[in-house]
Amino acid sequence: MATDVLIIGGGGREHSLVWKLKQSPRVGKICVAPGNGGTDLMVENVPIDVMDFENLAKFAKEKNIGFTIVAPDDPLAGGAVDFLQSKGLRVWGPMKAAAQIEGSKAFAKEFMARAKIPTAEFKIFTSASQALAYLHSHGAPVVVKASGLALGKGVYVCHTTEEAETAIDEIMVKRVHKDSGNEVVIEDFLEGHEISVHALTGGIDYILFPSSQDHKRALDNDQGKNTGGMGVIAPVPWVSEEMMSEIEAQVVAPAFQEFKKRGIEYKGILYPGIMMTASGPKVLEFNARFGDPECQVYMRLLRSDLLDLLEASVDSNIFAIKHAVEWDQGFAVNIVLASGGYPDEYKKGLPITGIEEAEKISGVVVFHAGTKMDNGQLVTTGGRVLGVSAVGGTLKEALDSAYKAIDKIHFEGMQYRHDIGAKSLAL
Predict the structure, then answer these.
(1) Which residue from 31, 125, 196, 324 has the least number of CB within 10 angstroms?
(2) Mean pLDDT, range 91-96, rounded to an integer
(3) Rounded to an integer, what distance in angstroms lies between the CA atom of residue 400 and that of residue 127?
């Protein structure tokens, strides 16, 4: 009998999960809470907020949902999996104790220190005056981070003392990230190339996904503010099997061993952001869910049935399927089309055109993030609006298709990076 699925979330990551699950003969009806304009065209959107655990549980019980996926960081850190499981539901994602690895950067840094996982030297502060005093004694460059969740916008790479002072002021005094700024982490600046690593686990064994590389800065040539991610490539052509083995031995395996030592059962995705430095891999941060936009390229490359993987994770049965997981041997990219002004203020409700034309280009699928249907017209609702994904036999082929597709799409103020993957092509 087919399994009905509820996906909690409403971004591009969730749209790509819907797109992939729709290909499974084992999946019945799919509902998304709250979903977006893209998921609305494919499955049933349910107008329930991701943090409304009571009504999410009530809906899942009433509709006999057989499998629930908690995709975003906020509900995971808030204990959504714990709550939904307590209501007798079958749920995929880490519980609150495990999701602390993303919900608190201070917790994550102490966790890494205990597990001897390589990361930048750091200090944690609960007052702006203490943070400023340390900054003035330490000097720049440094990275200043709001400890809590901040939609990917709470990390400030500061090349001067003045930039770091501004970051501390925004986080701890002006509270631009609200309670996420109760604590601040100041860490040494690392030189190198950043990559994303994803491991799916059931608490014991795990499956390492191909390497990927997000582009965090809003503008070309890594200029502008940090964002939730402006584009991604996978796999990363210069990341060798030896590099991935080193990351597995120094980061992934020790992390799961540390969770086990602490009596924390980790089920779901563990996603460390890694800086590949001259002295080896170092962890920038841990995330407790699929990256966005990384999830989109993984769903394009994954050949195996996604439900099989997620159920094996819930059932702690990864070892039974890990050697059967199949990936496309080509490349996938996902380029974000954002609202003008993102990651700061931006307009909403702007009409979007050209998606059908874009998807006529071979290998292209457009994933929705900040969209909704308004009286039959697709309009913008968020900062990151669309993700134009493409696959190809080479990285250049995939990128060329994606940029060709972008030329077909329009909304007022549309901005995107023109150099996704350019550094990897040049290496």
Answers:
(1) 324
(2) 98
(3) 48
326-352 per-position pLDDT tens digit: 999 999 999 999 999 999 999 999 999
Which CATH number is 3-93's, of 3.40.50.20, 3.10.150.10, 3.20.20.60, 2.120.10.80? Answer: 3.40.50.20
CA–centroid distance for 407 within its chain:
26
Contacting residues for 168 by C-beta, under 8 A, at least 6 apart: 128, 131, 132, 135, 144, 184
Instruction: Give the pLDDT band of residue 410 (cuts 50, 70, 90).
Output: very high
Q: Decide if 289 contacts 93 (C-beta within 8 A).
A: yes
| Position 199, amino acid | A
Short-list 237, 253, 289, 278, CA closest to 425: 237
Q: What angle do CA 71, 73, 78 make, to 5 degrees?
A: 105
The C-alpha atoms of residue 27 and residue 308 are separated, in whole angstroms, by: 10
List every span in the chain annotated with CATH 3.40.50.20.
Answer: 3-93
Q: Does residue 427 carry a pLDDT above 90?
A: no
Q: For 240-293, write each residue's pLDDT tens digit.
A: 999 999 999 999 999 999 999 999 999 999 999 999 999 999 999 999 999 999
Measured on CA atoms in the order 137, 138, 142, 144, is the torsion positive or negative? negative
Q: Are 147 and 171 in contact (CB under 8 A)?
A: no
Report pLDDT digits (tens) over 182-232. Answer: 999 999 999 999 999 999 999 989 999 999 999 999 999 999 998 999 999
Give tens-digit pLDDT for 304-328: 999 999 999 999 999 999 999 999 9
10 Å Cβ neighbour count for 11? Answer: 25
CA 246 centroid distance within chain: 22
Cis, peptide link before residue 235, omega less than 30° from 0 = yes
